[in-house]
Design goal:
Number of helices: 2
CATH architecture of the largest domain: Roll
CATH topology of the largest domain: Nuclear Transport Factor 2, Chain: A
Oligomer: single chain
Strand order of the largest sheet: 5-6-7-8-9
Largest sheet: 5 strands, antiparallel
Length: 254
């Protein structure tokens, strides 16, 4: 039998999905129970074509504590909420160190589910007019309006050691398509070619003094689909983009 409870939804902390006969959603969420904030996990089975939704499981995890999750990349590091977090970290550092850093932009953001969310942000800030790169770790519990800078450190003067190359989970987000189109247009201009961009197959990124994107894409050449690989250096805070490599991989795909 269903329990007679009076939980009130607060926010979603994490969502994962699995393709089954329909879609299974694994949701970690915060609710209040008699005014006390708690964390629950729900498994929900959805078959949209049948207008079918079923809660397979709903259980408390603990009172405001969940197991540490994997650290995952955030596809767009410069959406306003993440820029606001980075500014918060810079302001916190300025206050603690009597410094005068000025935030410029984020280079990379990763997140990890803990009792809340831990954000790992690589950002650019100016120190006495000179651009430098910093790394910060920020712990956020939104349902408590809680933010804490766990770490803030200098990486280098706008030239950090190259980071690891990581996969981007959604290669056909508009910003990655725009980058691929930019590379195709650059190639067309240099080689007097007439390639037409179709789609991205894979995108990887690497934090350097900016971000290098490794994109595998499909383009048509005289109506025939071919696969290309390109390497693009981006420094968003300078509005800088440069195609470092563009090459044919295969003559055609089916």
């Amino acid at each position: 039998a269903r329990e007679k409870a009076h939980l009130e939804f607060v926010e979603v902390l994490n969502v994962k999905e699995q393709v089954v006969a329909g879609m299974m959603y694994y949701i970690t969420l915060a609710v209040t129970d008699a005014g006390k904030k708690k964390i629950y996990e729900a498994n929900i089975w959805v078959k949209e074509w049948e207008h079918f939704i079923k809660v397979v499981e709903f259980k408390p995890v603990s009172d405001d504590s969940v197991k540490t999750g994997d650290i995952v990349d955030v596809p767009d590091p410069n959406i306003p909420p993440l820029q606001d977090l980075a500014r918060f970290a810079v302001q916190d550092y300025n206050k603690a160190q009597n410094a005068h850093l000025e935030y410029v932009e984020n280079l990379n953001v990763k997140e990890q589910l803990v009792a809340g969310t831990l954000y790992y942000i690589t950002l650019v800030a100016t120190d006495a007019g000179k651009k430098k790169i910093y790394e910060t770790k920020i712990w956020v519990k939104e349902w408590e309006d809680f933010k804490k800078v766990v770490e803030f450190k200098l990486v280098g003067d706008d030239s950090p050691n190259p980071g690891g190359i990581t996969n981007v989970p959604f290669p056909n987000l508009p910003e990655f398509k725009d980058l691929a189109r930019f590379a195709v247009q650059d190639y067309n201009k240099k080689e007097n070619a007439h390639l037409e961009f179709v789609e991205n197959l894979n995108v990887k990124e690497q934090v350097v003094a900016g971000i290098i994107y490794y994109i595998t894409l499909v383009a048509t050449d005289a109506g025939k689909k071919k696969i290309y690989e390109t390497k693009i250096l981006v420094k968003g805070w300078e509005n800088f983009k440069e195609v470092q490599d563009f090459k044919l991989v295969g003559d055609a795909i089916k």
